[in-house]
Amino acid sequence: MNTITLKPGKEKSLLRRHPWIYATGIATTEGRCEPGATVIVRAADGRFLAKAAYSPESQIRARVWTFDENEPVDHALFKRRVAAALAYRRQWVRDSDAVRLVFGESDRLPGLIVDYYGNGATGQLVCQFNSAGVEHWKTAIVQALVKETGCPNVYERSDAAVRQREGLELVTGVLAGAEPDPALSVTEHGVRYYVDVRNGHKTGFYVDQRDNRKLVGDLAEGREVLNCFCYTGGFSLAALRGGAKSVTSIDSSGEALKIAAGNVTLNGFDPERATWLDADVFKSLREFRAEGRQFDLIVLDPPKFAPSAQHIDRAARAYKEINLVGMQLLRPGGLLFTYSCSGAISMELFQKIVAGAVTDARADARILRRLSAGTDHPMLAAFPEGEYLKGLLLEKVA
After folding, report:
1. Where are the beta strands (DSSP E) in 166-255?
2. Residue 191 within any structural domain of the chain
3. Domain span including residue 43
4. What is residue 308's predicted lDDT score, i.e. its pLDDT?
5. Which of 127, 151, 230, 341 is catalytic?
6. d(CA 21, CA 50)
7. Across all residues in the chain, what is the average pLDDT?
8. Burial of 40 (0-12, 13-18, 19+ CB in 10 A)
9. In Å, how far are 144, 186, 318, 393 from 377, measured between CA atoms?
10. Which residue pairs from 143-149 have beta carbons closer than 8 angstroms and sit at least 24 positions apart in sequence?
């Protein structure tokens, strides 16, 4: 059997049930440890620790499938894991037909992301196979998804840079069923959104912000809203439905803004209440400040500024700048929703950065709530890396 033996002391994280084994912690490998192959993980003294998927090109050299020595890694395992993931979402997700069905390590399927748009025969499953292990078991996983959900349509969006760190090529295309419907739409808390599965960000829609979009909608009534890095208008549409007086939205993607404007029409909202700016957010915020513009509610939901730990300092400067100017553009009593999706930035560091921005803006603000992804993005207690999205809701003190 393929086996990797750890260096003395390197078993501690696995005993805490953390699912990653780093290359620096491995003493020896035995057998044909090819990409995606199942390996037995043993401590230096020979004790069984786990069964894992081997990835020879990655610094995360193996990802755990199971800590149970008697549990086979076979087709049945993937069927059980997919079934469990689906049962969990059916219990916890309401008022939306856009769901994160599988969230990698949190569903004990490390490296696998699956979003489910719609339902049953007319639905669309979109997958990202981001590790050598799930790439190796792709066929079994697709079969399990189709069988358990009853959805015949599976599309692959394995085009994230993380695959290259696994030694995998970037791949997109149909895995089962039909091509994605170019007019595919989903409904979330009463708001309809078009989803561009083939060309959109990630799998076409930011499912992780569902609960936060609802909160924006709940607080938007009568307010002048600014949504930065708006993409296809998720927060903007929620604010319009919530009764915002006006919504100004900024993004550097003209194609995304076209979809956003189409979402206004799709929902029957008054287009006069929505302004879409194809522009650089940093530049636009500085221009608004120079013009003396003010808003009652601002959303800052930027892309990942820190893809890895080596980018933290640069990212911190960017987060501080947009939050500083954002606070300056906020009227007294106004609300700021600010987010980071950089896994390398902890909630504690993010809050420290935002607090510094508030101070430099010569303002006072209350932190009303810490924000995170929805319940379809659960975090394993032993795997804090699963909490990549973090946010704060602040009120500017009058």
Report:
1. 171-176, 185-188, 191-194, 224-228, 246-251
2. no
3. 3-66
4. 80
5. 341
6. 10
7. 97
8. middle
9. 20, 18, 26, 20
10. 143/75, 144/75, 144/78, 144/79, 144/81, 144/82, 144/83, 145/82, 145/101, 145/114, 146/176, 146/177, 147/79, 148/79, 148/82, 148/83, 148/86, 149/86, 149/101, 149/116, 149/120, 149/123, 149/125
Q: Residue 354 and residue 36: Cα distance in Å, rounded?
A: 41
| Cβ-based neighbours of 249, under 8 Å, separated by 6 or more | 226, 227, 228, 230, 233, 236, 257, 260, 274, 275, 276, 277
Largest Cα separation within the chain, whole Å, is 70
Q: How confident is the model at residue 306 (pLDDT cuts 50, 70, 90)?
A: confident
Residue 332 has pLDDT above 90, yes or no: yes
> Which one of 132, 157, 176 terminates a domain?
176
Residues 220-259: tens digit of each pLDDT: 999 999 999 999 999 999 999 999 999 999 999 999 999 9
pLDDT the model gives residue 309: 80
Residues 227 and 135 in one domain: no
- The tens digit of pLDDT for each residue in 72-99 reads 999 999 999 999 999 999 999 988 999 9
Strand partners, 315: none
CA distance 165 to 171: 14
To the query of whether residue 341 is one of the catalytic residues in this protein, the response is yes
**Measured torsion, CA atoms of residues 270, 271, 272, 277, in degrees rounded to the nearest 10:** 150
pLDDT of residue 384: 93
Residues 364, 378: Cα–Cα separation, whole Å = 33
pTM of the model: 0.95
Same domain, residue pair 128 and 167: yes
Output the pLDDT for position 124: 98
Same domain, 246 and 359: yes
| pLDDT at position 119 | 87
- Torsion region of 95: left, alpha or beta (phi above 0 gives left; psi -120 to 50 gives alpha): left
